[in-house]
Design a protein that fits this description.
The chain has 381 residues and is α/β, with parallel strands linked by helices. The protein folds into 2 domains: 192 residues, Hypothetical protein VC1899 like domain (Restriction endonuclease-like) (Rossmann fold, 3-Layer(aba) Sandwich), CATH 3.40.50; 172 residues, no CATH class. 38% of the residues lie in helices and 19% in strands. The protein has 13 helices and 12 strands. The strands form 3 sheets. The chain has a 6-stranded mixed β-sheet, with helices on both faces. The protein has a 4-stranded antiparallel β-sheet with strand order 9-12-11-10. Strands 7-8 form a two-stranded antiparallel sheet. Strand 10 and strand 11 form a beta hairpin. The longest helix has 22 residues.
Length: 381
């Protein structure tokens, strides 16, 4: 089995604010070139600062938590470090730290890294707590998910959660646990890094199937009240965060909700059995004699035509029209079987339902299909 070759590092400010800004002749164990280091730091000359710090061992505390932990982690038997990605805060000091770390590690010729970069996580900052809590941490999850997929999947990635805000570290740990990715951490008083032990973290993805259209809305950044979406499933509330907007309580997707969605997509990029329909399987959608919303048949046929693994579709009887919230898809359990059901609503608010038959009708495939189709076609009529 291939070793993990990609390390995602959360980044804090201790290197600059805790170490270099205080560096002086009085600093315990100050290196011989401390004056050159301090001059480069004060001038914000990151290339010169990297040159000077490269003169001292990377295990020295002055080098900061990120450099210290990476130096220790690269000696682990399960890690063959080739790609190093730093996730920094959306602040000037975050970006400056990212620039420095990229330059420093690009000049670590002993590591022979193929790729070193830093990524700014939008709204991960401490000036606007609400934006940090809702959007910054969710953006952190998204960036982690993108990196994991970009470098081959969870089995090729490890996470260093030493640096950054406490909430940032916590989110990184949860994501690692959900995806079976090793996560390690080093407190400034620890003599070595520690691995977070595996936890029995498991999500109920039937919840995604039932609420796929709604979670798609939340993921797009919508804030919705119960008047707009109806009574919220208690299990679903675990994935949401309640905030007040103009005096009205509304729900938004929480960082854990983003981990829930990204975790499913990374673990299930595509169900193996959901293959394109053959010529005999691909049958024209069928519609009853009812009066349908404007554009209903055209939309159903468009989905059928553009989606290879949809065999056919047919309209469903009219009932509970008030429950239709725009155009979307969900998995419905009628007590006997699970079905992939689509809803369509025209601009006048008139709606109808239809069922899609897939080349794989397993529960996992239905959930995956609902999520994929909502990402592509979800709208509000």
């Amino acid at each position: 089995m291939s070793k993990r070759n990609t390390l995602i590092c959360t980044v804090g400010t201790s290197l600059f604010e805790g170490n270099l800004s205080r560096l002086s002749a009085a600093t315990p164990n100050a290196p011989a070139n401390w004056e050159a280091i301090r001059r480069a730091y004060d001038a914000q000359n990151w290339r010169e600062l990297a040159t000077e710090l490269l003169r001292i061992p990377p295990t020295e505390r002055l080098c900061g938590a990120e450099i210290n932990t990476i130096e220790e982690a690269r000696r682990k038997k399960w890690l063959s470090l080739e790609n190093l990605i730093f996730l920094v805060s959306d602040t000037p000091i975050g970006q400056n730290t990212g620039q420095f770390l990229q330059i420093y590690f690009e000049n670590r010729s002993d590591l022979k890294l193929r790729n070193v970069e830093y990524i700014v996580v939008e709204q991960l900052q401490d000036q606007r707590p609400t934006d940090f809590k809702i959007h910054g941490l969710r953006n952190l999850v998204r960036k982690c998910g993108e990196i994991i997929q970009r470098f081959g999947g969870p089995e090729y990635v490890a996470i260093d959660a030493t640096g950054g805000y406490k909430a940032q570290i916590a989110v990184a740990v949860i994501m690692g646990q959900v995806l079976d990715i090793p996560v390690f951490y080093k407190h400034e008083r620890f003599s070595e890094i520690i691995d977070f032990p595996p936890l029995p973290v498991a999500f109920d993805y039937d919840l995604l199937g039932r609420n796929s259209w709604l979670l798609t809305d939340f993921e797009k950044g919508e804030a919705l009240s119960e008047d707009e979406i109806g009574r919220v499933d208690e299990k679903l509330k675990v994935l949401l965060i309640e905030v007040e907007m103009d005096g009205t309580p509304v729900y938004e997707l929480s960082p854990v909700g983003q981990i829930y969605l990204d975790g499913f997509r990374i673990r299930h990029p595509k169900p193996i059995q959901l293959v394109p329909a053959t010529g005999e399987q691909k049958k024209q959608p069928r519609f009853g004699d009812d009066n349908y919303p404007k554009g209903f048949a055209e939309f159903v046929e468009k989905v059928w035509r553009e989606t290879p693994w949809v065999k056919t579709a047919f309209s469903l009887p009219y009932d509970k029209q008030s429950a239709i919230k725009g155009t979307g898809f969900h998995v419905w359990d009628n007590g006997q079987e699970k079905q992939l059901v689509g809803t369509y609503q025209d601009r006048s608010g008139f709606g109808a339902r239809f069922r899609l038959l897939l080349t794989d009708e397993s529960p996992q495939a239905l959930v995956w299909a609902a999520d994929q189709l909502n990402q592509r076609y979800r709208s509000h009529g």
